[in-house]
Amino acid sequence: MESASQPNGRSFSSWKGWIYNFAFFLNGLLIFLLLFENRFVVPVWMQSLGRMHPLVLHFPLVVLMLYSFWILIIEKKESSKWNETLADTLLLIGIVTAAIAAFSGFVLSQESGYEKDAIFWHKWLGIIISVASIFWYSFQKYLPPWKIPAKVISVSLLVMLLVGGHLGGNITHGEDFLTAPMQLAVVENDKVTFEEANVYTDLVEPILEQKCISCHNAQKSKGNLQMQTKELFAKGGKEGTPWDTTKADLGVLLTRVHLPLDDKKHMPPRGKAPLTDDEIALLEAWIKGGSRFDEMVKSVSPQNPIYSYAQNVLAGSEAEEKYDFSAASPDKIKELNSTYRLIKSVAAESPALAVNFYNRANFKSEDIAALAPLKEQIIAMDLSKMPVKDEDLKTISQFTELRKLILNFTDITGSALPELKKLTKLKSLSISGTKVKLPQIQALSEIPALKNVYVWNTDLTKQEMLALKKSSKISYETGFAGDTVVLNLNPPIIENEDPVLSENTLISMKHQIPGTVIRYSLDGKEPDSTTSTVYNKPFPVDKNTKLIAKAFKKGWYGSKPVEKFFFKSTFHPDSVRLITKADLKYPAQGNKTLNDGIKSDNSTSSGKWLGYRDQDLQAYLYFKKPVKAQSVTISMLRNVGGYIFPPTRIEVWGGNDEKRMKLLKVLTPKMPDKTTPNSENMVFDFDFPSQEISCLKVIAKPLAKLPAWHPGKGEKAWVFMDEVFVN
After folding, report:
1. pLDDT tens digits, 192-237
2. Single residue among 427, 443, 477 that ends a domain in this structure
3. The whole model's pTM is what?
């Protein structure tokens, strides 16, 4: 094959000629399309080419920058640093990749979701860089690298590459992408305190900035939704306002968040960090609370998820404080961490530790004392809802490095509150929902560093609360907005943490505010203030039961209902075998999942749900000795926004072994409609004549096509199951 020839008259190998001609063709086609841009419609097959733009754009950036820097360091013709053949190849690679990147970028820019003004300069700079680089290659003969014109071109190309790259970063990652770390450093150094924090500005908005705004900004507004200001966020996009409290799923924002990770409409999209369960709970609570932009964190009830999220995120000044103690042994921290006590660092590279306690039923006073080896490092301790007694405050007072102590809804009466005077560094104390008295609280003024005390839902009268607020030294948060405000009671506390009841377990409830009446129902109906059963003492249940309870008191609004489903489990299967394997995304604990006695919450990411989509869920449950059973209960999940629907058919088979089985019962669950609440733990009961059984078989068939009203219409639904109970 004959060699090709460049415009400058030099001959070069055929492969270089093909590459040069291809780049020249792409640039010519690009200029032609620019002239007729208003009439150009991207064909479907070409859209994939446009979406290759993020994959190829980095290559010409690196190659052309490398070539430009090389030109700048050449001082003379005889320089040993210069290799003409290698330089020629490097620039050739740069021009063809620049042409591909510019062409794919132009095609991508024709898609919806990009603001024309925002991408104008990025698009034109990309085209100019592509055209300029091919002209440079064509006229290398007249632009030797040791001469001033070549160096001027190198500097100009570097500037265009940097500016074009920055503008591209603004489109994909948000405005001022390159300078964001410096801005973040300023924000970190001026971290807002819990008392000054605004719910939207300091909690919600940072989540949107980290997880959402890169796709919803002035440069790139997917779905015509922009989030960079409150006004634009509230305005919404082509699907309307992002939230709607009249809908079961609270609107499109949370619907997209709850979709399966592999769904193309899931937000954030695949490849970007998804929202955590805590972040989703925060957004849900903010939307349910009215989506207010002016709400302050300190005005939120301690039972609100916003409050607990703020306590974890807004560390006050602890993260910035310099500590004079050394870090604890990682092995000791690991040793003292458990499933009911979490010890973690308050900030990266900080020796300070924070402790959170969980599981009220298993809590013992010794669990606090056991932390003594870390008392030099623990600066924050959260004992909310734990059965902490007055005598435990003496133990707590030994942790003299404490800056924050949370005792909300514990069993303290306040008689030992003076013990906390030993905590000379304590800045924040929360004793909401306890039985403390005014003199005991006032004595806290002797703690030199104490700045904030939270006393929601205590026995203090309005006059006593007003007296506290007059204190000039300590800020007391009482939760009252004024004398005419009627407050909602907090829901009752159901003390049974384990929803699986053994034979003699009693159900217990309590409320922290004296004089409160707890009324409950076991028939699925919401209790009222006059006819529903009054709770007086713990009571037993002898079957699967849905408990709904509310609190009532004169002068207060009734509480929101609290509900919990309790499962009765008489016969425990000795083993389980999954006939069909769960989907790799939701394997839970495999065979053990259906008989481990561990109920999952409604979170799809709990790791406790078996998920099936492409095949039926089929499982065998075995008993070493025959049991005389008359019912089977299956626990499943419905999450409409997450494509998790009830099965279309559930079968329960029983017999002496796998080969001798008979159909005991079949259920065809009702499918959700537009009005169905988004997420709920479903329970399916199968009653049949009492008989001896050594082996059970369960089959659940997923819905093949989601209904037309669903965002994923026509796609397969998921089936989620976590437990099977036999009685």
Report:
1. 666 677 877 778 888 777 767 666 665 555 666 666 676 777 767 6
2. 477
3. 0.43
φ, ψ for residue 465, nearest 5 deg? -65, -40
Contact predicate 610/582, CB 8 Å: yes
User: Are residues 371 and 470 located together in one domain of the fold?
Assistant: yes
pLDDT tens for each residue of 520-553: 999 888 898 888 999 988 888 888 888 999 999 8
DSSP bridge partners of 654? 662, 696
Is the domain of 347 the same as that of 204?
Answer: no
Q: Domain end: 257, 287, 315, which one?
A: 315
Let me know if residue 321 belongs to a domain. no
Q: Which three-class secondary structure state does DSSP give residue 678?
A: coil
Task: For residues 196 and 163, state if they share a domain.
Answer: no
Is the pLDDT at 646 greater than 90? The verdict is yes
* Residue 719 is assigned to a structural domain of this protein: yes
Q: How far apart are CA 88 and CA 360, in angstroms?
A: 73
Q: Find all residues with CB under 8 Å of 579, minimum gap 6, and list them.
A: 618, 619, 620
The number of C-alpha atoms within 13 Å of 690 and in the hemisphere containing its C-beta is 3
Dihedral sign computed on CA atoms, order 327, 330, 331, 334: positive
Residue 156 banded pLDDT, cuts 50, 70, 90: confident
Residue 247: inside a domain: yes
Q: What 3 state SS string does 540-599 have?
A: ECCCCEEEEEEEECCCCECCCCEEEEEEECCECCCEEEECCCCCCCCCCCHHHHHHCCCC
Report the alpha-carbon distance of residue 284 to residue 282 in Å, rounded. Answer: 5
Q: Is 258 exposed, middle or buried (0-12, 13-18, 19+ CB in 10 A)?
A: buried
Tokens, residue 516: 């409160």
pLDDT at 246 over 70: no
User: Under the phi-then-psi rule, with left for phi > 0, alpha for psi from -120 to 50, and beta for the rest, what region is 236?
Assistant: left
Q: Are residues 423 and 550 in the same domain?
A: no
The domain in which residue 655 lies consists of 575-726
Do 167 and 242 sit in the same domain of this protein? Answer: no
Tell whether 463 and 497 lie within a shared domain. Answer: no
Determine contact, residues 472/530, Cβ cutoff 8 Å: no
CA–CA gap between residue 687 and residue 667 (Å, rounded): 11
pLDDT in tens, 372-409: 999 999 999 989 888 999 999 999 999 999 998 999 88
Total domain count, the chain: 5
289 found inside a domain = yes
Six-digit token string for 271: 């490849």
Per-residue pLDDT band for 3 (boundaries 50, 70, 90) equals: very low
Whether residue 356 has pLDDT greater than 90: no
Q: Is the pLDDT of residue 652 over 90?
A: yes
Q: Name the residue with tokens 């207060």.
A: 556
- The answer to whether the beta carbons of residues 267 and 255 sit under 8 Å apart is no
Residue 619 burial by Cβ neighbours in a 10 Å radius (0-12, 13-18, 19+): buried
Q: What is the mean pLDDT of the chain?
A: 78
Residues sharing a CB contact under 8 Å with residue 391, sequence separation 6 or more, in sequence order: 365, 416
Residue 123 confidence (pLDDT): 73
22 in Cβ contact with 133 (< 8 Å)? no
144 and 272 inside one domain: no
pLDDT score at 289: 73
